[in-house]
Amino acid sequence: MSGKQQTHSNAVTYHRPGHHHNRCGSGCGCFTTFLKVLITIIIVIGLAVLILWLIFRPNKVKFHVTDAKLTQFNLTDNQLQFNLALNITARNPNNRIGVYYDTIEAAAVYKDQRLQTKWLPPFYQGHKTTAVLSPEFSGQQLLLLSGQGLAQFNSEKLAGVYDIDVELNLRIRLKFGAIRIGKFKPKVNCELKVTLSSDGSSAPSLFQSTGCDIDYW
């Protein structure tokens, strides 16, 4: 083989160092920058939330049913006639957080069937204060019971004590100093045992104050 041919063969297979194609290109740099910015934002938000929590130490509002008066609860031909009046306390235990109750939906529920819904007036609750809600439910509602549900009703009727649930669906905002944040939608559930007053009079001594469960999520 001649020298010229050998030189030509080497020229075909030879690659200069440093001239490989950049498989990543500028896209990798943009993605890396995006990740760094995203992580920085997450860290800043996390620190801000932690600082706010350390400053304000938020605690849940506590709900209790302090009085319940049931003066009518008669079932005839699947029609329930009822009359229930409640006092519900909402305690804001926080030192630096106020609560705006923008929407308050109260419902009486029996055997997973809603008897009636009432909308209570909105209000603002300041620090370390207790507010009283007084929903009243009365009227007539179709109530379909069978099997175990009907047996439970007859048992409660015999005892004169009924298991009635009261639910509160809220829409609230929190006030931190001059700042108002959030549109939270907590749900409050109160499982009550209420004694029927046969003579129509109230019997507060027969009802024991009952705490309610609250779920913010």
TrEMBL record:
Name of the coding gene: LOC111449529
Chain segments carrying region Disordered: 1-20
GO terms under biological process: defense response to other organism
Keyword Transmembrane (UniProt): yes
Polar residues bias spans: 1-12
Domain of life: Eukaryota
InterPro entries: LEA_2 (IPR004864), NDR1-like (IPR044839)
Topology of the protein relative to the lipid bilayer: Single-pass membrane protein
Domain Late embryogenesis abundant protein LEA-2 subgroup, residue spans: 88-191
Localization annotation: Membrane
Full protein name: NDR1/HIN1-like protein 3
Transmembrane stretches, start-end: 37-56
Record PANTHER family: NDR1_HIN1-LIKE PROTEIN 3, OS05G0367900 PROTEIN
Main location: membrane
GO cellular component terms, A-Z: plasma membrane; plasmodesma
Keywords linked to the UniProt accession: Membrane, Transmembrane, Transmembrane helix
